[in-house]
């Protein structure tokens, strides 16, 4: 066989041509040569083409080239490819290492594919000591990142995964450990070991050469939010900023929903503010959570601004869930006509189909407006709108009928519900079984119609149907009997409930206290209140709430201090009840003490609580502390109502710091959530009380000239 090998160089003058002659042998797989000719390199002009070497020289050159090639033991290269190796290439040359690393990588990938991963996982899972794990991995060391990832994703126990990672981490460069760490983090979160997962992420931050990425933080924070550990999840947000990892929309939405579900509306609003400050455009889910948080915090105007202006401006179409919290907040404030108007806007203008909760709210609003017929028409037309009434809807209609004095309609609807529960075919076309709220509503209706005997028999009827009375049931019965002049019967029932260990709620206690006081049995009322100092069967938080609602300052303060010292107060509503009680009785120092206790427990106060605390600081002439509280809460992302801002302006006026007052008013004038007219009226009143009539007159004239829409800077 005759083959030619042309070695090409960058210099045309160094071009060598060899003609090798060998005896041809039958082609086999072992000695088959597949050689592609090297492209000819053009020679520069003016240089003669070299002459072919004589046969003797060819033999000598061939022998020299063969001697220059390394032995197969040093370089494992197939014989067919040996002709491509430059004999002058040293082992330290970078090209040599590149060929070697590529070959090793190919060999390592081949070895990884041939490993029985299932058997290796079983061996690691059965290992009892670190030496057993090392022994199982010994034949495969050094472990590649591909094999480590396969093992970590299949080992169910995250703690064994930690041991495995600690063992083989030296085999890999630090940047290659990111994926194994993330797999281990995900495994710990799936196993519910959140403490281990948090430690893994913190170890990633402390380890050199590897740092958590967006997947790491998202995995851990999502697991923490699902488990209800909001405060622990929020501690990782500053770490994300330090690692230059930006939280995404999904993460923020999960945190906002968790805060809202946990009853911490101020924290939900703070998170929503951080979301928008980060330049992330909220989606429908985030907007709905923010609207609900605004409504829960009493910031109804801000909620309506989001619903009617911000959402359409961002191209986010509201749905029924967007309108529901606003309608409920309007109903809670007694603005039932505004709720009905918004419901009309929702259907006619926004073209949003109401859901069940919206129908329930509007039916109740109709009842409060004495529009029972409109409520009745809407109730029986719900199915045409594709919404099936629930037991809550039926209970709402019973209450509407009862408030309107339509006792016959209420009894008829109640009979339909009981018949539907027995034969499975309700009057509205579905089976709706009465619950405890249904019976409580009917007992109250019988009480309004002065049928106390029927009300008492209904309690026995509900027990016969498997519905157990609750505290509201007994409270309603007690009220009916007291109105009917059966005080002895009511007192006996209350004592029997206490002896039986029935759960007593604040409503039931307050009902009996009021009953004793109205009947002139003051000693009985005081005895009941004294019992709350050492409550049995009633939590101390509930006892404090009962005493605060009854206006018992000393008793509530005594029990609150004792419970606070033992760490038995966890609910922030107890702190708010005590602050309101002390504020009403002008005990401002006690207001500050309760507020400080609330902050020590890590609760984020709402807008009204902050306003109460700032008012107490103002009464105590501690203006600097009020200003520090205002600034600190703003930095934490608390969303204030207008009352808090106006409170701060008033405190600056009382301090006669008019420069700071003008700066704050100028800053607030650019806030779209502030009522500008009220803002400038408050500022004008402060200037008037400080005998700065020219300033006050200038502000009033600006308000009149601008028709209340805008006021120029008056500084």
Summary keywords:
mainly alpha; two-stranded antiparallel sheet; 37 helices; 2 strands; disordered N terminus
Describe the structure.
The protein has 37 helices and two strands. With 715 residues, the protein is mostly helical. A two-stranded antiparallel sheet has the order 1-2. Strand 1 and strand 2 form a beta hairpin. The radius of gyration is 40 Å and the shape is globular. The model is unreliable at 1-100, 425-429 and 708-715 (pLDDT under 50).
**Radius of gyration (Å):** 40 Å
The helix/strand class is: mainly alpha
Percent of residues in helices comes to 55-70%
Largest sheet: number of strands, sense, barrel closure: 2 strands, antiparallel
Average pLDDT, rounded to a whole number, is 77
Question: Low-confidence spans: pLDDT under 50, at least 5 residues?
Answer: 1-100, 425-429, 708-715
Number of helices: 37
Judging from the principal axes of the Cα atoms, what is the shape? Answer: globular
Tell me the strand order in the biggest sheet. Answer: 1-2
Number of strands: 2
Roughly how many Å apart are the termini? 102 Å
Q: Estimate what percentage of residues fall within beta strands.
A: under 5%
Family: Belongs to the PPR family. P subfamily.
Protein name: PROP1-like PPR domain-containing protein
Region (Disordered): 25-56
Domain PROP1-like PPR: 240-335
């Amino acid at each position: 066989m005759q083959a030619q090998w042309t070695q090409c160089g960058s210099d045309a003058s160094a071009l060598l041509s060899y003609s090798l002659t060998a005896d041809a042998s039958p082609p086999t797989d072992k000695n088959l040569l597949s050689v592609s000719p090297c492209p000819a390199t053009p020679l520069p002009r003016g240089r003669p083409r070299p002459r072919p070497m004589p046969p003797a020289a060819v033999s000598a050159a061939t022998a020299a080239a063969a001697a220059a090639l390394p032995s197969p033991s040093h370089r494992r290269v197939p014989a067919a490819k040996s002709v491509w190796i430059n004999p002058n290439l040293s082992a330290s040359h970078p090209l040599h290492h590149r060929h070697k690393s590529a070959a090793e990588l190919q060999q390592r990938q081949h070895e990884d594919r041939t490993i029985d991963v299932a058997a290796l996982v079983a061996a690691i899972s059965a290992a009892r000591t670190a030496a057993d794990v090392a022994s199982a991995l010994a034949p495969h060391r050094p472990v590649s990142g591909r094999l480590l990832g396969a093992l970590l994703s299949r080992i169910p126990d995250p703690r064994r995964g930690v041991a495995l990672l600690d063992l083989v981490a030296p085999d890999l460069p630090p940047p290659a450990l990111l994926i194994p760490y993330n797999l281990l983090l995900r495994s710990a979160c799936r196993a519910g070991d959140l403490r281990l997962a948090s430690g893994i992420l913190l170890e990633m931050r402390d380890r050199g050469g590897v740092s958590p990425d967006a997947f790491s933080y998202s995995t851990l924070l999502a697991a923490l939010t699902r488990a209800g550990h909001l405060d622990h999840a929020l501690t990782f947000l500053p770490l994300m900023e330090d690692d230059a990892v930006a939280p995404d929309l999904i993460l923020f939405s999960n945190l906002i929903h968790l805060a809202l579900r946990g009853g911490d509306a101020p924290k939900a609003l703070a998170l929503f503010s951080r979301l928008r400050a980060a330049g992330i455009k909220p989606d429908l889910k985030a907007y709905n959570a923010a609207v609900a948080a605004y409504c829960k915090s009493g910031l109804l105007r801000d909620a309506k601004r989001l619903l009617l202006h911000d959402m359409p401006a961002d191209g986010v179409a509201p749905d029924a869930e967007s309108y529901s919290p606003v309608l409920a907040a309007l109903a809670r404030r007694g603005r039932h006509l505004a709720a009905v108007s918004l419901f009309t806007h929702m259907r006619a203008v926004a073209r949003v189909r109401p859901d069940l909760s919206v129908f329930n709210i509007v039916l109740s609003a109709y009842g409060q407006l004495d529009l029972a017929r409109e409520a009745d028409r809407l109730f029986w037309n719900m199915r045409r709108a594709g919404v099936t009434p629930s037991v809550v809807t039926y209970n709402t209609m019973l209450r509407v009928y009862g408030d309107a004095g339509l006792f016959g309609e209420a009894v008829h609807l109640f009979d339909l519900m009981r018949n539907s529960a027995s034969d499975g075919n309700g009057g509205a076309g579905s089976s709706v079984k009465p619950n405890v709220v249904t019976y409580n509503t009917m007992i109250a209706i019988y009480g309004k119609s002065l049928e106390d005997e029927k009300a008492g028999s209904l309690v026995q009827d509900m027990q016969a149907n498997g519905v157990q009375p609750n505290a509201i049931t007994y409270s309603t019965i007690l009220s009916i009997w007291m109105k009917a002049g059966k005080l002895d019967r009511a007192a006996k029932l209350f004592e029997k409930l206490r002896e039986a260990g029935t759960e007593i709620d604040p409503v039931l206690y307050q009902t009996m206290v009021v009953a004793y006081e109205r009947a002139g049995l003051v000693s009985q009322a005081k005895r009941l209140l004294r019992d709350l100092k050492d409550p049995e069967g009633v939590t101390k938080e509930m006892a404090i709430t009962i005493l605060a609602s009854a206006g018992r300052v000393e008793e509530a303060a005594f029990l609150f201090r004792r419970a606070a010292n033992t760490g038995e107060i966890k609910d922030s509503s107890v702190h708010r009840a005590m602050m309101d009680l002390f504020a009403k009785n002008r005990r401002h120092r006690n207001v500050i003490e309760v507020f400080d206790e609330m902050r020590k427990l890590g609760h984020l106060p709402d807008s009204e609580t902050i306003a109460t605390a700032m008012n107490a600081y103002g009464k105590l002439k501690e203006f600097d502390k009020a200003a520090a509280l205002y600034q600190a809460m703003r930095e934490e992302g608390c969303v204030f109502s207008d009352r808090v801002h106006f409170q701060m302006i008033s405190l600056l006026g009382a301090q006669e710091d008019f420069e700071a007052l003008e700066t704050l008013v100028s800053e607030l004038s650019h806030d779209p959530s502030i009522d500008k007219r009220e803002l400038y009226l408050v500022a004008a009143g402060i200037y008037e009380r400080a005998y700065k009539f020219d300033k006050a007159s200038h502000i009033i004239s600006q308000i009149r000239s601008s028709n209340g829409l805008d006021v120029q800077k008056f500084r």
